[in-house]
Amino acid sequence: MLLSSLLKVVVASLCLGSIIAQKVTQDQPQVLGQEKEAVTLDCKYDTSDSRYSLFWYKQPSSGGMILLIRQDSFNQQNATEGRYSLNFQKARKSVTLVIAAS
Ligand SMILES: *[C@@H]1O[C@H](CO)[C@@H](O)[C@H](O)[C@H]1NC(C)=O
């Protein structure tokens, strides 16, 4: 299964409650993984906002976008949500999604 085609990240600004798409780069063209195995997906972003939120979504082939996990820029800790966790490196503008084995 091509996880990169299923997982997209969106960076949005909290400013005024508006959602302003910023620059997001995912350098891995694809990541192959077996179900239930661990996988790591890299993502770099760019934004001029001082406060922002980062969202990782899953896009099933049936369509739609399922929110997996979010990271707020002011949060001093990496977000965790079940199997999903983030390695958020604010200074590097990097937010890696780690899916733990299950
Ligand atoms: C997230 O975890 C990584 C690896 O342990 C660490 O380098 C980084 O500083 C953490 N980020 C935050 C926002 O806590």
Briefly say what this structure is.
With 102 residues, the chain is mostly beta strands.
Report on this model:
It comes from Bos mutus. This is Immunoglobulin V-set domain-containing protein. The chain has 102 residues and is mainly beta. The protein has a single domain, classed as Immunoglobulin-like, CATH 2.60.40. Helices cover 4% and strands 43% of the residues. It is built from one helix and nine strands. A four-stranded antiparallel beta sheet has the order 3-9-8-7, with no helix packed on it. Strands 1-5-6 form a three-stranded antiparallel beta sheet. About 7% of the residues have low confidence. The site of 2-acetamido-2-deoxy-beta-D-glucopyranose (NAG) has 6 residues, from β8.
Beta content:
35-45%
Bound molecules: 2-acetamido-2-deoxy-beta-D-glucopyranose
What is the residue-mean pLDDT, rounded to a whole number? 84
Output the structural class. mainly beta
Cα-based radius of gyration, to the nearest Å: 13 Å
Using the alpha-carbon principal axes, give the shape. Answer: globular
Number of helices: 1
CATH architecture verdict: Sandwich
Q: How many strands?
A: 9
The percentage helix is: under 10%
Record keyword descriptors for this entry:
single chain, 102 residues, mainly beta, Immunoglobulin-like, binds 2-acetamido-2-deoxy-beta-D-glucopyranose
SSE layout and pairing:
Blueprint lengths: L2 H4 E7 L9 E3 L13 E3 L2 E3 L5 E7 L7 E7 L7 E2 L2 E6 L4 E6 L3
Antiparallel strand pairs: 1-5, 2-4, 3-9, 5-6, 7-8, 8-9
